[in-house]
Design brief:
Largest sheet of chain A: 5 strands, mixed
Radius of gyration of chain B: 27 Å
Shape of chain B: globular
Number of domains of chain B: 3
CATH topology of the largest domain in chain A: DNA polymerase, domain 1
Structural class of chain A: alpha+beta
Number of helices of chain B: 18
Radius of gyration of chain A: 15 Å
Oligomer: heterodimer
Strand content of chain B: 15-25%
Helix content of chain B: 25-40%
Strand content of chain A: 5-15%
Low-confidence stretches of chain B: 1-34
Structural class of chain B: alpha+beta
Strand order of the largest sheet of chain A: 2-1-5-3-4
Number of strands of chain B: 24
Strand order of the largest sheet of chain B: 9-10-7-17-14-15-16
Order of helices and strands of chain A: EEHEEEHHHHHH
Distance between the termini of chain B: 71 Å
Number of helices of chain A: 7
Number of strands of chain A: 5
Number of domains of chain A: 2
Largest interface: A-B, 57 and 62 residues
Low-confidence stretches of chain A: 158-165
CATH architecture of the largest domain in chain A: Orthogonal Bundle
CATH topology of the largest domain in chain B: Aldehyde Oxidoreductase, domain 4
Mean pLDDT of chain B: 94
Shape of chain A: globular
Chain lengths: 165, 741
């Protein structure tokens, strides 16, 4: 048994310490957003935040996460109360198949928490580890810019929403 | 009333053959009694003519729309629901949409070829219009008024005096269980309220909030996890495998060895992965080299035996050229490379096998799985659940077969299989390598007088239908042989898709060299042969324009009659700021290309600006401006999204991508060994201009951009460097070598 804090809640996890975080999130906690893409840390579909930093959950073993705060896309907001970044991706219609999008959003969220007003170059550089195959890149970039504006105009706490919850 | 029962009843009725209910409408599109065969209703209605195969209305007024097509990331669900809402005159959000499911929807074959709007969209548009007319006729009968004095509004038929009869009240009995008529009373496009609107996609909210959006997210009670151990190479034979140690690993439920098919099932997913690795290490295979030389695809494809056919011939001996040039273009094998590896869930309950799959064709895939399992087709049900983006025949069908073969061994238990990244990259059927040889002559006025085009290619579809197309059936004991490949017939074509020029040339000769032998596993990839054929034709048009001293846009227009083609060319050129004789800034180039997909679907022209770093050879697409005519537009933002995606994806294919292999194994097995574009290469700007054609047929849009994007970029690189590259991909090294040559 290991304790794991995800989206502000403590969970007791019965899994081997070498189990990558991705499988714990998807299977034990039944969270959908983080996706299996490569299992090799090459595509970013599994990106979540750990202590506010973007992390590839497919290559991060459970035993490294004791006492850390894990945030997934589900922890940012919901269908009924979407977080700024979720609103932004909906408003920009920034998905085709959408399989890569949760990972894109988590990496962008980590950037925006650190750098609330990123330049286009900063966003591109930040998203470099994440692959999209449908070619939705132009919309993803627009959505991240929009999210920055939405977060800026929202109440201040929302910019730290990811790790606070 | 939406379950499979209805379909069974319909089958019974159809089998009985006698019951054809025709309905009469005031303005008499009643079927004619003439001897000539009655004209067929449009789109997929021709194959599934009963209106209630497409639209059901319950007594409470709830409306369900059924499409045999599948959402594969292209936004088709939203577009189809818009069409249905428009012609039914109901609010968009009030409809429920059911997609491809052999238990519930019509057989619409594959979701492919940019055909969903043309086939299913057209069927549902006409079915909805005819349902609306039936409801009006029924209301007229009940109210004892003339139908023309009634209108529909918000799910009800409304009389002049304001009386409203809800659709649910009007559907008593089987009034929708009638065959469609050939013609429908469609709405005037000028009155559209839902079609033509950029409505937000139905599937996006769940996808950006962690909802269950994909088959990968499905969790059935008692579900177990399976992983397959694939052979290391095509044709490898399993000669030894001690499974006893693997069977003892934590969580392992079963190890399956069936001929060369090896799989492991475990209670939890990561347990299955660990067991898969152990099983893989325990397996000893006999491999045989059989792959061609990767660095000589030109030699390989032009020397393999081929079936040759002249697919176009036009001659005018009075037109003679003064100068003739030739060029050869090549394309490597390329990956679909969905970000999410293929996945399926199967469950055998009693004698019924259910498979949840992201296949593009639930019916043909069902036939394949039933054949593999030696079960009757009606004992197998395939239900489409969305997967990761689909750009053609990837591992989806194979994963479905894997799951079914494994689930057969574990009665009652839902079995989930997901492929590993290296399995998807190594085993998916690739987009086929191709070679084109072109030769053309110009006269003194700079017009093309003669055009010769030869294309060498494998088939572009090895999709199931038969079980032999599926890896599990090929690898199991008593395997089913891979079916003989067949070319896809024109006018759509496969390797010869878009091989016939759309331009008017006095002399033209086009030959398709169809190559049956497939040393590398291949099948359909977005745009099929059109990607390479359009790349070749449009690159060569630029080579000829340069020789003629003509502007590339002007040169194309001089050879093109098709007015809609001319419109997209002019629109793209004008929006880009294309000017005759303009010169790009230093180290940059402008490029242009155009095609009408399949010569019968959507028109697309793309202008691009590319920057080339002369030191490294590295190219970067800076901006692209596209114009597209896809007929009547249903969702303009959905259309724009498709074209933007096509440009970016095609850019990645065109600049970076080639499957690699040695004499035995595929060696491009992940994103390190098969790199695709990343954010540093994403353009500054992409603009898409839509030319709407109100009331004209839907032409689809999923694949129209692939070829023009490739050629536009290639032409811009040639413009920037002065060097013409004819072998895909146009890599940094090839560009650098050309600059240095």
């Amino acid at each position: 048994m290991m304790s794991l804090k995800v989206n502000g809640h403590d969970h007791q996890i019965d899994a081997d310490g070498d189990t990558p975080l991705l499988y714990v999130l998807r299977e034990e906690l039944k969270l959908n957003a983080a996706k299996f893409g490569c299992g090799l840390g090459q595509c970013g579909a599994c990106t979540v935040m750990v202590d506010g930093k973007a992390v590839l959950s497919c290559v991060t073993p459970l035993l490294l996460l004791e006492g850390r705060q894990v945030t997934t896309l589900e922890g940012l907001g919901s269908l009924d109360a979407p977080a700024p970044i979720q609103r932004a991706f909906m408003e920009e219609q920034a998905a085709q198949c959408g399989y890569c999008i949760a990972g894109m959003m988590m990496r962008a969220q980590a950037l925006l928490q650190r750098t609330p007003k990123p330049t286009d170059e900063q966003i591109r550089a930040e998203l470099q580890p994440n692959l999209c195959r449908c070619g939705t890149h132009m919309r993803i970039l627009r959505a991240v810019h929009r999210a920055a504006r939405l977060m800026d105009s929202a109440a201040l706490p929302s910019t730290t929403q990811g790790s606070a919850r | 009333m939406n379950g499979p029962v209805i379909l069974d009843r319909r089958r019974v009725l159809a089998g009985g053959g006698a019951l054809i209910v025709s309905f009469s409408l005031p303005d008499a599109f009643a079927q004619q009694q003439a001897q000539a065969p009655a004209p067929k209703p449009p789109g997929s209605l021709a194959k599934a003519p009963y209106l209630d195969s497409w639209i059901r209305i319950d007594a409470d007024g709830a409306i369900t729309v059924f499409t045999g097509k599948a959402e594969i990331g292209q936004g088709v669900k939203t577009a189809i629901q818009q069409i249905a809402a428009e012609e039914l005159d109901v609010p968009f959000a009030s409809l429920k949409l059911v997609t491809a499911d052999t238990g519930r929807t019509a057989n619409e074959g594959y979701t492919s070829g940019s055909n969903s709007m043309k086939e299913s969209g057209t069927a549902i548009q006409n079915a909805a219009a005819q349902v609306r007319e039936l409801l009006i006729a029924e209301a007229a009968r009940r109210l004892n008024v003339e139908a023309e004095n009634l209108k529909t509004d918000n799910g009800a038929v409304v009389a002049a005096d304001g009386q409203r009869l809800g659709y649910g009240d009007l559907v008593a009995g089987d009034i929708l269980h009638v065959q469609a008529q050939a013609k429908s009373k469609l709405k005037d496009p000028a009155t559209y309220k839902v079609m033509g609107q950029a409505l937000p996609r139905l599937d996006i909210p769940a996808k950006v909030t962690g909802g269950a959006a994909y088959i990968q997210d499905m969790r059935l009670p008692g579900m177990v996890h399976a992983r397959v151990v694939r052979p290391p190479s095509y044709g490898a034979e399993l000669i030894e495998c001690d499974i006893s140690a693997v069977e003892k690993l934590p969580g392992v439920v079963k190890v399956i060895r069936n001929g060369n098919f090896l799989a492991v099932v475990a209670a939890r997913e990561f347990q299955a992965i660990k067991a898969m690795r152990a099983l893989s290490a325990a397996a000893k295979w006999r491999e045989k080299p059989g792959l061609p030389k990767q660095d000589d695809l030109l030699g390989v494809l032009t020397s393999l035996p081929s079936q040759d056919s002249t697919i176009f011939e036009h001659s005018d001996p009075s037109a003679t050229g003064q100068i003739t040039i030739e060029a050869t273009y090549t394309r490597p094998y390329q990956c679909h490379g969905s970000i999410g590896p293929s996945c399926a869930i199967a469950q055998l309950v009693d004698d019924a096998m259910t498979v949840w799959t992201h296949t593009q064709g639930v019916y043909p895939d069902r036939a394949g799985i039933a054949e593999m399992l030696r079960m009757p087709e009606d004992g197998v049900r395939l239900i489409h659940v969305e997967g990761s983006g689909c750009y053609g025949h990837n591992g989806a069908d194979d994963a479905a077969a894997d799951a079914a073969l494994i689930a057969r061994e574990l009665r009652g238990v839902p079995v989930r299989v997901q492929w590993m990244r290296e399995q998807e990259h190594g085993w998916e059927p690739f987009g086929p390598a191709m070679v084109t040889r072109l030769k053309a002559s110009l006269d003194a006025s700079g017009m093309i007088t003669a055009w010769n085009f030869e294309v060498f290619s494998n088939t572009h579809s090895m999709r199931p239908g038969g079980a032999g197309s599926m890896l599990a059936a090929q690898h199991m004991a008593n395997p089913i042989a891979v079916p003989a490949p067949k070319p896809i017939p024109l006018p759509e074509g496969g390797g010869d898709r878009n091989a016939i020029p759309i331009y008017k040339f006095p002399n033209a000769h086009v030959v398709h060299h169809f190559i049956p032998a497939m040393p590398v596993r291949v099948s359909a990839m977005r745009a099929l042969g059109a990607y390479h054929n359009v790349f070749s034709i449009e690159s060569f048009m630029d080579e000829l324009a340069k020789l003629a001293g003509a502007d590339p846009v002007e040169f194309r227009l001089k050879h093109l009659d098709d007015p809609r083609g001319r419109d997209v060319i002019e629109k793209a050129a004008q929006s880009f700021g294309w000017q005759k004789g303009h010169k790009a800034p230093s180290d940059r180039g402008f490029g242009f290309a155009f095609a009408r997909y399949k010569n019968l679907a959507a028109y697309c022209a793309i202008a691009s600006e590319v920057e080339v770093n002369r030191e490294t050879g590295r190219p970067r697409l800076l901006r692209a401006v596209a114009a597209v005519d896809s007929g009547q537009v249903v969702n303009p933002d959905g259309l724009i999204n498709q074209i933007e995606g096509a440009i970016v994806q095609s850019m990645s294919w065109t600049l970076y991508e080639a499957v690699t292999f040695d004499d035995t194994r595929i060696t491009s097995i992940d994103w390190q060994t098969y790199p695709i574009l990343r954010f540093d290469a994403v353009p500054e700007k992409i603009e898409v201009h839509v030319i709407n054609r109100p009331g004209l047929p839907f032409l689809g849009s999923g694949e129209t951009g692939q070829g023009p994007a490739a050629a536009s970029i290639a032409n811009a690189i040639a413009n920037a460097t002065g060097k013409r590259l004819r072998d895909l991909p146009l890599t940094r090294k090839r560009i650098k070598d050309a600059i240095d040559a």
